[in-house]
Each structure stands twice: as structure tokens, then as C-alpha cells.
Amino acid sequence: MKKYKILCDGFYVSVKPRGMARFVGLLTKDNNNISIKKPKYLHAGAMYPIWEQFIYPIYFLLGRYWWSISPYNTLPLVLVRRTILVIHDLIFLDNLKNCRISISMLQNIGFLYRSANVLLFAKYTKVIITVSLYSKQQIHERLNVPLKKIYVIPNAIDIERYCFLTKQACEDFILIVGGEAPNKNLEQALKGFAFVVKKISVKVHLEIVGVRLPHHAAIKRVAEQLGIKDLVLLHPYLSQDVLDQKYVNACVLFFPSLEEGFGIPLLEAMAAGTPIACSHCSVMPEIVGDAALLFNPWDSEDMADKLLLLLNDKTLRNVLAKKGLDQVKKYSLAGFSAIANQFWHTWEKSV
């Protein structure tokens, strides 16, 4: 890639150093021809369309860059023909199609923005990167993008960081890592947990990480209606170190999503040696392999049955934990680097 200067949109890199922002860092890490542009003043997510459509393209043009990396599912319309687009998932299309409304108005506006942007313009980009085989097929079928234009570079985590963590808590709890978006399926998950509470003989509680503070009240109302309010603890954003310790201390990672492009919490739980109960749909089976118990995410009783199996059977938890440690090796940083370098090599020859 000696001939081409590339600018990458760094809007979320300093705002949310997880998920999509983490992917930006890994994708650009070993490529000296890529510069990352971060906004100086606009940091609120609500301002992102203004940054993406009007301000970022000015930096691109003034810097005389050849190519742009748009790593957050959407792209600047004036740079369509010069964009390497990263689409992590098409969840926003499902929310629009199925009229799944978030309790966050900002998220609903975001769904509309991403849907219009991707449906109209994604197929005109030079290349699309995505994070799973499942997402690749979705992009091909739903956006009418040829498979040869879509490259898969799976997410990765630093597996070694979990080797030095030890369990610090004796209290039994089930962990959910996910926000308030409709695809996270929290209401159904709370119903499943309520069934667990009725059937289990020991006290167990549920900790949910990632729901933003303005939306705690809505989640608590559902928990109160189900009679489990005192057994549900909500955390907003946690630092990676604190979250890692949560994984290690938890009995089970409960992952009830209806739709995901990848599911990084699955990797983090497997690396921490925490057994997983997750949905049987979308990308989840691809990521966990045989290292988790799968349930129907539309059936709260099935959720409860799988959770009870894990909570009541220490041998099963140990078996799944061991399988998880083996499965997560497929998503190491070294593996990501090798796949990313191969992508850049292939891309260089095609432009």
C-alpha cells in the first residue's frame, strides 16, 4: 500500500474504546499509511452524522487522501467511491423492519440514519469489511452486494490478559453484558431469570452491564413487575478491567440477544473461563461453537431451563469453560493481525 494515503474516521475511538472503536485500532495497527482523524470538539454520539457527512470529508479532501475507512456501519455520501466500509451488523435494518422501538429516542434516530445510508449507498463502495460469516451473508442477501466485495476479519481480544485474573467473589450471580437496544432482548431475559428464581433452591442474582443510566428506571419497572427487583443489579459503562473481573466472578454469562453481528462478550467470557448460555440464532452458534448451551431467545422458559442446567451442574460448567478456552483461541490478536495483513495485501493488488 505504498501508493495510497488512507484516512480513517476516528470519531468513536476516544469515546467508546470497545466494540467498533476497538476494531478500528486493530485494523489500522500495522499499517503506516493510515491516519486516524478524531474530532476535537464533537464527542456526543448525536453529533456523529454531522461529523461524518460534513466535517470528516473536509479533512479527507484537504489532506489529499486517496481512500477513506468508514468503520461504523455508515459512510460519507461524497466519498462513496473512495470508501472502505466496515459493516459490523445489520441490526438497525431488523429494528426498522420489525418495528422494534428502543426505549432510547437517540437509538431510534440512529436506526433510521444507518438504514437509509446503508440501503442506498453501501453497494457502491469499493470494498466492505465485516466481522463474521453470518454478517457477510446478510450483507450479500439484504444489500445486494457481491460476495467477492465482502471480506471477513473477525473481532479479536487479548486472551492473555485473562490468565492472571482469579475469582474474588463467593456470591453466585448471572451476568448479562448488553445495552437497552431492542436486539439485546432484556425484557425476555428478565422473564427467563424470574423463572430461574422460582425454581432454584439457592439465592442467585442477575447483574446487567451496559444499560445507560437514563434507561435504568424502565428496566427496573419490568423487574418489579416480575417480582425480582431486589435481585437485579444494573451497571452502566464499566472499565475493561472491572468488566473482566465480573466475567471471572460470574457463574454464567447469559447472552439473550436476538441479533448480533458478532458478540464480543462471548469471547471475553470464554477467555475468562466463564460458561455461557446464549441464543441459538444469528451469529452466536458461529462464535461459540460447542462451548455454550443454546436456547430459544423468544422462549423465557427455555432460557430458564438452560440457566438452571448450568447453575445446578458444576461438572457441566467446567466442561463448557474448558471448551470455551479452546474456542476463543480462534480469535486471538495474532490471528486478527494475520487476517488483516492478508486483507491489505489483497486490497493493494486490486486498486
Low-confidence stretches: none
Number of helices: 13
**Strand order across the largest sheet:** 2-1-3-4-5-6
How far apart, in Å, are the first and last alpha carbons?
10 Å
Q: Can you identify the CATH class of the largest domain?
A: Alpha Beta
- Give the DSSP E fraction (strand runs of 2 or more residues): 5-15%
What is the element string, with H for helices and E for strands? EHEHEEHHEHEEHEHEHEHEHEHHH
Domain tally: 2
Question: What would CATH call the homologous superfamily of the largest domain?
Answer: Glycogen Phosphorylase B
CATH topology of the largest domain: Rossmann fold
Number of strands: 12
Kindly describe this structure:
The chain has 351 residues and is α/β, with parallel strands linked by helices. It has 2 domains: 6-156 and 332-350, Rossmann fold; 159-331, 3-Layer(aba) Sandwich (Rossmann fold). Helix content is 43%, strand content 14%. The protein is built from 13 helices and 12 strands. The protein has helices spanning 20-28, 48-62, 91-97, 105-121, 133-143, 186-199, 216-225, 240-249, 264-271, 284-288, 300-312, 314-327, 333-350, and strands at residues 6-9, 34-37, 67-70, 83-86, 127-130, 150-152, 173-177, 205-209, 232-235, 252-255, 276-279, 293-295. Strands 2-1-3-4-5-6 form a 6-stranded parallel beta sheet, covered by helices on one side. A 6-stranded parallel beta sheet has the order 9-8-7-10-11-12, sandwiched between helices.
Summarize this, please?
By secondary structure, this protein is of the alpha/beta class.
